[in-house]
Fold this sequence. Notes:
The structure holds two protein chains of two kinds. Chain A is α/β, with parallel strands linked by helices. By secondary structure, chain B is mainly α. In chain B, 51% of the residues lie in helices and 2% in strands. Chain B starts with a helix and ends with a helix. The chains are: A alpha/beta, B mainly alpha. Chains A and B meet through strand 1 of A and helix 4 and strand 1 of B.
Amino acid sequence: MGLSRRQFLKWAGVTGVGAVVFNGCRIPDHEIQVQSPVQLAEDLVSGRDNYYATAAQSGSGSEGLLVRVMEGRAKKVEGNPDYPLNTGAHSVRSEALLQALYHPDRLQGPMARIAPGGPFRQIGWPEAMEQLAEILQEADPASVLMATGAVRGRLADVINAFSQSYGGRVMGFEPLEQGVLRGVMSNLFGQTVLPTFDLANTNFLLGFGADFLGTWLAPVHFSRGYGEFRQGANRQRGRFVQVDTRYSMTAAAADRWMWVRPGTEGLMAMAMIHTIVSEGLGDPDVANALTGGQGAGALSAYSPSAVAAETGVDADDIVQLARTFANPANQPALAIGGGSAAAHTNGTFNLTAIYSLNLLVGSVNQPGGIIFNPATVHSQIQPAPVREWKAALEDMRAGNVSVLMVRDANLAYGLPGSLRAQEALEQVGTIISFSSFLDETTAMADLILPGHTPLEEWGSDTPEPGPGYETVAFQQPVVRNYRDSLAFGDTLIQVGRQLGLEGDLPWENMREAVRAAARTLHETGRGSVTMATFEEFWRRTLERGGWWDMNSRVNGQPSAPAQLPTSAPQANLAGNPEQYPFYLVPFESQALGSGEYAHLPWAQSVADPITTVAWTTWVEINPRTAERLGVEEHDVVQIESPNGRWFRAPVYVSPAVAPDVIAAPFGQGHQYYTSYAANRGANLLDIIEPNEDQETGALAWAGTRVRLVATRRRQVLPKREGIEPAYQLPHEYEHVILVHRDS
Amino acid sequence: MNNMLVKIAVPVIGLGVTLVLAFVAFFVISAWWGMPPAVLGFGDGPEQPIAFPHTVHVNQAGIDCQFCHRSVSTEAEASIPAVEQCLFCHTFGAIDGSMSEREGAQAEIAKFIEGEDPINWVRVHRVPDHVHFVHAPHIQRGVSCNTCHGDVAGMEVVEQVRNLKMRDCVDCHRANNAPTDCAVCHY
């Protein structure tokens, strides 16, 4: 068949058009495909987030928090900018609360022993409550002891109401409690509530032993004030001298760090008072009262030259410091003390001397000085001093404690090892724990009714120290409980009902208890939130994270102080200096506290601000000590205490440690308390001697001498310092950018 | 003989051809008008690169639609999760089912991860190019997923149950007092 040119063109045209048309009918591949990419896009944020205001107790500090919650999951903790204490900042301990919530080793639900001493089995809440009620019904209330951490706010009211109604005893426990400071504030200033310190308006700040920027009382609150003190607008940069036995973060921040021999902080303060009084620099009325009308003569034992040798501080330095402190040009000047300065057998004497300095320069309840706090609206459970705990352990040993209820009071870990708390606890009939984690004490329990973590429960907090005026933080759950737990307050309310105590515990649950307290606040009609109806007030208060009344301040001055002692009580350190040549200066870990945050990996991984070490216990020693012992960094030494106890830890050599001092952090050395804490580092509380402050009976945790023995072991210190090289630009690069500053 | 054959065969073939043409015409018209008749496998959902059973994930594991199709309440499209997301759940999630089923699923996911190979799912629901369907306002208004997608939880293989033609959209919009301006969808 022949194909003409015309025909060929026709066919070609038809075929071409057909191909185009029919291809057009087909849906292209990319339109009928939906692709799952392999990797998640990091910036893909779907859904919406909510921020809930809540609060948490962080050690003794109180922090208002905003928690970002997305699709029912708490994602990030931030500081609440409204809350007067932390004003938007927050501590690493609060940051890590998320990990308490989602912790893989969190107790899943109530547990009971299969048989006494046997393993645990999971039980349901009805059975757990029944067992709890039965145990409490059968026990003699007088033999029931409840041990809690330091509890404030509404939960303290509930606990106190429960124990008074039931008839049991409540004791607070914290390894490093503030009993000495509390005692001195009461004796010297007549204050039952801890005051705050107006760092923001101080001109000259003198610190003794208190690591107030790192761990002491409310570091986030103080850091805010400190920022103002150093770099505030419209003011001169304040000057700051820290007198401390260890080069802490606070000491590092100071203009001058003066090392003082452990336990002689009070002596040094007395020498300053001697100078101020003898040179007529301070308030003559106060000087008169402090010396019993005898003038500097009554303080002759404290002349700078007399105490120089004992304190290790040059007499001239003391005189200069006293003159600077009392110089009218430097007012307001503020002296604060605590931490290791209070943790000696003469702790009360030390703090009395230190805080008396404020009386001489008129910095009490004045701007830039000590600011008194009004009484809190809720009751408190304050930690009992070690003296009382020794008696309680004796009670246990004698079989007088039939039931021990424990919540966040890790007695088996936190009491000095030589008190043998574990043995005493074994003599207790039944131990019931309400902790969220299996800590050392909970591991000895017979019945566990796990409580919520802070982000899951209702509550309130009356901070101590407060900001100088009445403040109540409100704590609300930001997510539903992640495990089968029940808030401790709710457990008490429910079991109270089963025991017929609802007369004293009239609330349905913790939320109602908090609401009842909020109602009284609403009725006052004052403060940061005032609303016509209670429901509006409640909503607004929860939204803001709390209620505070900036006008509710304490006015007036304390009455004239009593005469200071004419001779100083010596710090009675355990161990004789020949056999035990080193002062052990333990210090609270910034992230782990005294061990209560050791279960949170974020807290564990926070590098110590001075040494950059994380995840373990280390021992800071002077280069000369290291040379004498023949050890260098990473070598393990054994630290032996006079009571025969010891621990081993790698050495961190630092010239900032005095030659006769070794320093080591609290917080590690757990046997239990989740896989992140267990068998890691050493527990310093285990080796320190349980000496007490003579006045208050508080633990003198800085009052132990030790000796060091080199071992042949080596353990590489997990630290950042010196690991990363500096990536400095070579000199041939000359494109330096100068930042212009008006000054 | 031949004549007889031709006499019978021609009408039969003619009838057959007519029937086939009629069926094709019916099929095309019904598919144009609504859904094609579910014959010859036309009603079935397409075969997917992974036999992903919605039944197991929704009914047994109790996962909400929006857990995987996350952007549905905020965006136009209901997003399809990344393979990593599949792996997260299959590695850490509390998933029931026999060991062989679980391992089988994990192995299948691992293939895509290792090969860095995206999963090319075949689209089941599709509206023409000149239609802008935006999921978010529908979900925010409270229209549940199964209103349009049917009981996906009960489907081994996802198939289309509503015709999703303009009349379908407009009927529903009218019934729910939603806007019916042209530019609502055609913009």
